[in-house]
Amino acid sequence: MSTSTIEPPDFLDRAITSGSGARAFWSRFLTCVCISLAFLTLIPLLSIIFLLLKNGLPNLSLSALTELPPAAGMVGGGFGNAIVGTLLMVAIGLVLATPFGILSAIYINEYAPASRLSNTVRFVAKLLTGIPSIICGVFAYAVIVLPKTGWLAWIPSGFSAWAGGFALAILILPTILLTAEQALMSVPHAYREASYGLGATNFQTIWRVVLPDGLPAIMTGIMLAVARAAGETAPLIFTALFSQYWIQSFNEPTASLSVLIYNFSTTFDDHQKAMAWTASLVLVILVTVANISAQVIFRKKQ
Amino acid sequence: MTFTMEQPQTTSESEKSGPTQQTSPRADFLKVTNFNFYYGKKQALFDVNIEIPARQVTAFIGPSGCGKSTLLRNFNRMNELINGVRHEGDILLNGRSIYDKKIEVIALRRSIGMVFQKSNPFPKSIYENIVYSLRISGVRNKATLDETVERSLRGAALWEEAKDRLHESALGLSGGQMQRLCIARAIANQPEILLMDEPCSALDPIATAKVEDLIHELKRQFTIIIVTHNMQQATRCSDQTAFFYLGKLIEFDATQQIFSNPGEKQTEDYITGRFG
Fold it and tell me: Which residues contact A281 (CB under 8 A, 6 or more apart)?
């Protein structure tokens, strides 16, 4: 029994000593830094929610949701007309922007991905996503609100729900277009090949295969656009202005939550200031509910 | 189907093959003449001439990039979906050019089924996958659709496995089942020709064997052209084999002849594994 065996070095020994080395210290230190920064990020977000609940909740009641805004010095009242106005103008914006956005996305992704027109549309849409919302407001003001003569005279002038919806449509169009394009792009090419291989036309392939598969992502894009549009103030100040009353027609100045928050939070009246908090809470809830429900309803089936 | 049935007396060429058509399948059912094909400036096929007989299995073999898939994809004009492609020469199906201006590419593709390398069922139910070709041609009759589903699934040897889950998502099938579903989908519209672009390259040996058995069954009804990298597969399931190299058709003969006694040095080098 004189066979000598070669002992393997003890790797675990080295593993134990390296646990106390400088490298291990830096590793732990950086982990701690990342965790702390993640918590710091939460602070502003949580403070907003905390402040909204603290200041907004006490006045949240059925009458706040259903009554007209109180005049300065009055108590009670609500912002029912502003909720209706916001929902209405967001809806107008969506109805105007969604067909343009989705159909353009279909064109630039399915029909002519590399054409000069497609590249131009894509480039302009990307530029427009960065345009400040107040510019959309000024544009809509010029196009709709200002009195027009000549061949444009048929467009109703003046502050109106139409003008507000139009401004929001301009604002959300690039978002809808670009997210819809992304959604269509993520549909596997193999689906299109299979469809064309079975003798489907362009339209049949898009309608029966590409759109159904891309729909959840398209809807998510639309909901993001809604969330952005619902919170915008600047485009609405220029176009829909504000109203103390229930909306009677699409052609008159229209109240919105965001403009109400802006108006009420800058007055000296304490009750109106309190109402601004409540309206903010309601706006955030509306946007959150819209976001979550869209994700639940259009979640991709596995 | 939709477009091939023209009276054969119209051209002199068809007259010759007219009488034989009734007794045995045409030997030049699919005929490629002086065919060149370009992706942009890059030429992918050089002066290809080949005559593919009906109701038989023809295998295309050759190293990657040799143009075999390119030629296959020209038979149903799928290559036209790519930007900047062009072709010279002609492809005749039953004596008529598939590039004839009167022929609608949609109708052409409906009578030529295609199975792809990677199985690509739609994210729909098994049932909807199979009736897709009928739905896009406007068939609404439930009995017809049901009948087609059963016939196609039986044809693709998938009926027993799928009959109880017709309305479940096709994406829940195994890899081999998915590929057989794609075959079922391709034969649902009763095409004349079945093009298979490396149909087994992503399948395990058992699933491959099932698909190969299926090919044997299907050649009674369809003209099958199969692109394969697998030499054994070509010997097992094809009647003729065409060997392509660098965009040229090097040799085309009975499969047995190609593999036992190839006429060209390049063919021999390839099938004995000296390159490729």
Answer: A52, A53, A56, A57, A60
Task: Render pLDDT for A77-123 as a digit per residue (tens, 0 to 9).
Answer: 889 999 999 999 999 999 999 999 999 999 999 988 888 999 999 99
* Residue at B84: amino acid letter: G
Task: Show the domains of chain A with their CATH numbers.
Answer: 83-257 (1.10.3720.10)
Nearest to B241 by CA among B259, B223, B263, B229: B259
Nearest to B107 among A192, A194, A199 (CB): A199
What CATH number should be reported for the domain whose range is B8-271? Answer: 3.40.50.300
Element (H, E) at B208: helix B205-218
Contacts of A197 in chain B (CB under 8 A): 76, 78, 109, 113-114, 116, 186
Which candidate from A195, A197, A301 shows the least CB-CB separation from B76?
A197
Annotate A33-58 with DSSP letters as a single string: HHHHHHHHHHHHHHHHHHHHHHHHGG
Angle at which helix A161-185 crosses helix A211-231, to 10 degrees, equals 140
**B108 and A200 in contact by Cβ < 8 A?**
no
Q: What is the ipTM of this complex?
A: 0.84
Q: Which helix (H) or strand (E) holds B225?
A: strand B223-227
Task: Give the predicted TM-score (pTM) of the model.
Answer: 0.80
